[in-house]
Amino acid sequence: MGTVAANIANAFRRDLKLAQEAVRAGVVPSRAKAADNHWNRWALFCISLHIDPSLEGVLEPIDILQVYAHRYRTGELAPSGRPVKSRTVEDSLRAVGQAFTSVGAQDPRLNDAGEMDFRLHRQLMSYSKGDPPPQRVKPIPIQVLFHVLHVAQASHCVANEATADMIILAFFYLLRPGEYTHKASNENTPFRLQDVELEIGRRRVLVTECSDEDLDAATFSKLTFTTQKNGVRGEVIGLGLSGLPHFCPVRAVVSRIKHLRQHNAPPDTPLCAYYVDGTQKHVSAGDVTAALRASVTVVGHLVGFQTKDISARSLRAAGAMALLCAHVDTDIIRLVGRWRSDEMLTYLHVQAEPVMRDFASMMVVGGNYTLLPAQDNPIALRF
User: Fold this and answer.
1) What would the pLDDT profile of 92-126 be if each residue is shown by its tens digit?
2) Which of 248, 184, 187 is nearest to 216 (CA)?
3) Is the dihedral of CA 318, 142, 294, 154 positive or negative?
4) Which of the 8 DSSP states describes residue 335?
5) Whole-number Å distance between alpha carbons of 267 and 368
6) Which residues, listed in sequence order, are joined to residue 239 by a DSSP beta bridge?
7) Are 105 and 159 in contact (CB under 8 A)?
8) CA end-to-end distance (rounded Å), the chain
9) pLDDT band at 383; cut points 50, 70, 90
10) How far is Cα 243 from Cα 203, in angstroms, rounded to an integer?
11) Are the CB atoms for 182 and 284 separated by under 8 Å?
12) Quick one: which of 153, 159, 154, 149 has its CA closest to 277?
């Protein structure tokens, strides 16, 4: 850039800075901050060995990465100071590798074929085998959700009613916490009033202008995806009436719309917002978890659950589990829940009694078969 005019060089530097900021904005702020922290730990580790963090002049970078991974695994380099799981070690190594590629350098974890080095791969596999069993999210039985709704209605508390509405929406729409709760860091992207559409039969209803009578007559509710994770922008997912007067996605949406309209909320207001004495507040993931656990303390013993089994993340699994128990095809469940892989299967528990109830008798019937004989064994036994 030394041979070009100063104004051209300055414009280039300005645009390069903006491009680099765009790269950083490609992930949520917490993810970018975590990546910075991983690099800082890597840099301190290298400096302690009198090695350039860029591995300049290092003939065997895999050796350095293996020791870094070992010390991270044991907790010596981990932020908590305690041993961590294999995935945490893998995430830190990935962040280091991505820091290299972000400046155009080669990822030191990878071989010439672009695959993770055999030694690192086996080391991580060894860590994975030594990890404790994963703490899977447990789906919540609907009895617990009924209790949450009953408590909210009996309390006549705006906050409790808003929390119950969002729990119902999360269950029926298979939502992640970031899609139905608010977080102070603004990393969540909950659905907003303007993302909602209602229908009465085949007639569309403009939720910001229609009458309360039209709201009460709604038979179908739709949510439009904007920036939600794994959602296709502009994609719409809709649900009809559940058949119950209150535990229903349409009725929960209508409840939120009415409350927000009463307080003249603008269209970009999150559905999880509510007003107390004119002050806007929001349902948080912590509020949802607290409400669920409070109900589990009352009815949990009836359905085999403890409070430690439950969090806001459980509602997405609960909706998927309800569909599975209703014999909905797993491909359909994956479409409704916007899963792009078989990750969904980790949410579905074979512990659910309706899923396994008839399997033994089905196996007795299905296990009665014969095999086609091979050419060297032409006689087939018949039963």
Assistant:
1) 999 999 999 988 899 999 998 999 999 999 999 99
2) 248
3) positive
4) H
5) 61
6) 221
7) no
8) 85
9) very low
10) 20
11) yes
12) 159
Quote the tokens at residue 166.
Answer: 């969002």
Tokens of 84: 């961590």
Q: Of all helices (H) and strands (E), which one includes residue 346?
A: none
Q: Which two tokens stand for residue 108?
A: 């030191």
Calpha distance 303→73 (Å, rounded):
37
Q: Which amino acid is at 333?
A: I
Cα–Cα distance measured from residue 202 to residue 90, given in angstroms and rounded to the nearest whole number: 51
Residue 179 CB neighbours (<10 A): 26
**CA nearest to 260, candidates 283, 288, 237:** 283
Rounded-to-integer distance, Cα 161 and Cα 155, Å? 8
- Which amino acid belongs to residue 146? F
Structure tokens at 148: 């949450």
The enclosing H or E element of 240 equals strand 236-240
Quote the CA–CA distance of 66 and 60 in Å, as a whole number: 11
The confidence score (pLDDT) of residue 376 equals 60
* Three-state DSSP state, 196: strand
The contacts of residue 278 (CB under 8 Å, 6+ apart) are: 263
- Rounded to an integer, what distance in angstroms lies between the CA atom of residue 266 and that of residue 352? 42
- Cβ atoms within 10 A of the Cβ of 162, count? 25
Average of per-residue pLDDT across 360-379: 59
Helix axes 86-101, 61-74, angle to 10 degrees: 140
With 60 as the cut, is the pLDDT of residue 189 above it?
yes
Residue 379 clears pLDDT 60, i.e. is over it: no
Rounded Cα distance, 318 and 137, in Å: 9
- The residue behind tokens 């050419």 is 375
Q: What is the DSSP-derived secondary structure letter of residue 319?
A: H
Alpha helix segments (H runs only) across 81-139: 86-101, 118-130
Residues 318-346: what's their mean pLDDT?
Answer: 78
Residue type (1 letter), 109: R
255 close to 262: Cβ distance less than 8 angstroms: no
C-alpha 296: how far from its chain's center?
A: 23
Token code pair at residue 118: 């055999």
Q: Which residues contact 275 (CB under 8 A, 6 or more apart)?
A: 158, 259, 262, 263, 265, 281
377 pLDDT higher than 60 = no
Residue 278 predicted with pLDDT over 80: yes
Cα 35 to Cα 161: distance, rounded to the nearest angstrom = 39
